[in-house]
Amino acid sequence: MASEGQQHIAMLRILLAVCETALHAFHAADNPLDDDFVTQLQQVTDRTREELSDLTDLLAKPQ
User: Fold this and answer.
1) Sign of CA dihedral 1, 9, 60, 42
2) What does the alpha-carbon distance between residue 14 and residue 31 come to, in Å, rounded to a whole number?
3) Is pLDDT larger for residue 28 or for residue 63?
4) Whole-number Å distance between alpha carbons of 63 and 53
5) Residue 55 in contact with residue 7, Cβ under 8 Å?
6) Where are the domains positioned within the chain?
7) Which residues contact 8 (CB under 8 A, 6 or more apart)?
8) Backbone phi, then psi, for 15, in 5-degree steps?
9) CA–CA separation, 19 and 56 (whole Å)
10) Got the DSSP string for 9-49?
C-alpha cells in the first residue's frame, strides 16, 4: 500500500502544480476568460489540495 500511496501522492502533486500554474497564468494575463472554467479549475485545485492532505495524513498513520 505504501508504494501505491506514494504514487498517488506524486500524481496529486503533479496535478496540483499544473492547476496552480494554469491559474497563475490566467490571472497574470488579465484577459477576460471563461469565468466558469476558472471557477472549475479553482475547484479542482482546492479538491486536489484536500485529497493530497488527506492521503498524506492517512499514510503517516502507523499500520
Assistant:
1) negative
2) 25
3) 28
4) 18
5) no
6) 2-60
7) 55
8) -60, -45
9) 19
10) HHHHHHHHHHHHHHHHHHHHHT----HHHHHHHHHHHHHHH
Measured distance CA(6)–CA(8) in Å, rounded: 5
Taking only the tens place, the pLDDT of each residue in 1-26 is 568 889 999 999 999 999 999 999 88
Q: How far apart are CA 61 and CA 10, in angstroms?
A: 18
Buried b (16+ CB within 10 A) or exposed e, 15-26: bbeebeeeeeeb
Q: Which residue has the cell 472549475?
A: 40
Q: Is pLDDT of 58 > 80?
A: yes
13 contacts 55 by C-beta, under 8 angstroms: no
3-state secondary structure of 4: helix
Q: Which three cell numbers stand for residue 47?
A: 479538491
